[in-house]
Amino acid sequence: MLLGTQRVNERNHLEIGGCDAVELAAEFGTPLYVVDEALIRQNCLAYKQAFQREYGDSAVAYAGKAFIVRAVCALMAKLDMWLDVASAGELYTALKGNFPPQRMLFHGNYKTQQELQMAVDHGVGYVVVDSFVELDQLSATAQAAGRVQPILIRCNPGVDPHTHRLISTGKEDSKFGFNIKDGSAMAAVKRALELPGVDLQGIHCHIGSQLLDLTPYTEAAPVMTSFLKQIRDETGVELPVLDMGGGLGIRYLEEHHPPTIDELAKSLSAALLDGIAKAGLTKPRLFVEPGRSIVGEAGTTLYTVGPVKEVSIPEPPGKRVYVSVDGGLSDNPRPALYDALYSALVANKAGDEPKFDYTVSGRHCETDMLIPHIKLPRVETGDILAVQSTGAYNYSMASNYNRFTRPAVVFVYDGKADLVVRRETLDDLLKCDLLPDRLA
Ligand SMILES: Cc1ncc(COP(=O)(O)O)c(C=O)c1O
Hints:
Helix content is 30%, strand content 25%. It has 12 helices and 21 strands. The protein has helices spanning 21-28, 37-54, 70-78, 88-96, 113-122, 132-144, 184-194, 215-235, 261-279, 292-295, 334-338, 426-430; strands at residues 7-8, 14-16, 19-20, 32-36, 58-63, 82-85, 104-106, 126-129, 149-156, 178-179, 198-204, 241-243, 285-288, 299-313, 318-325, 344-346, 356-361, 369-376, 384-388, 408-413, 416-421. A hairpin with a 7-residue loop joins strand 17 (356-361) and strand 18. Helix 2 (37-54) runs parallel beside helix 9 and helix 5 packs across helix 6 (132-144). The structure holds pyridoxal-5'-phosphate (PLP).
């Protein structure tokens, strides 16, 4: 499987964004996150055009949690995107990436007082309110600052997204948002309409992530449009914004066939427009918040292969060949968290036939399998392994487990490679450590 601008070049090497992956590994070291900028640009454009065409008045907010560094924020700003942030750190990164706060949405089920203050002080576009406590806190914060903060209310439409339980967020039993069915969402809307300091502009939902089927969207759409109607009927207010969140899945394996961005835009828009027409509502401005489907397939992690070890296994009786790479759980926790599966190529033998069975493991102090079963060309120590579709929830979830330094990130575009995050140093690992006098 080749994604985005990936191709096999005349040297039989994997090329991404016009750059030879083996040369990237030599120049920047491994593990290395390589980001295909052209594919990110293409995905952003595809989202904007598809929703404009299918729905009309709409905006696309990139969900920063998938992968947020200053260069990503600067790119999103250039592409006229909106941006979701979900913490003080993401907001700060975005500000330092020259992203205009007026085009940001601030998310989270527990925003601290410091975060609410930051959002208000910087004039964030919308705060997406998640609880009654937050609603009161935000109202007080905005009033004290002499501002009126535009808000959306996060609603829980009670839809099962049929995805991994840890990334399923829109079911009734969820820590996120206000339940529509039990009346909490309506109570939140009414309270928001009464409170000073906040300006209720709309409602929001996000049902889950890595969705490989559009049904959950078309189930959530009528729930949300009916709720808009109920709000109008009970309060006389027609809210001008409807945010349907993110969630579209990507290809991790050749056999994954996620719906395209166009298919998502068609189905979701049709379901919403139908609900809006039936309810006799004025069409609200639609927001969507894709994260994974913008950056996921654009990321490739390059590793250097270390030991290749054949072991005898009892169940089923036979042999397993472990390929150890110079990263693992710390740069990609998704296999451990979600049993996520990945595909890979040997970057320096990219066109060779994959005919041998391997298990790819990291080098942490646990069984950090990156890929339990994969067919590859013959793998030898020193080869460069390119694990694909690592653009989302990899760098952003990376840790320093075992005191590993976090890898560098390189943007590749039109044959040029730009370092956008330098590799951490051993000194970086110590920069927050302090030694009390009695231990010094
Ligand atoms: C509120 C919200 N919006 C958008 C997203 C992005 O989801 P995805 O990366 O699946 O598109 C998330 C992910 O958790 C989310 O919580």
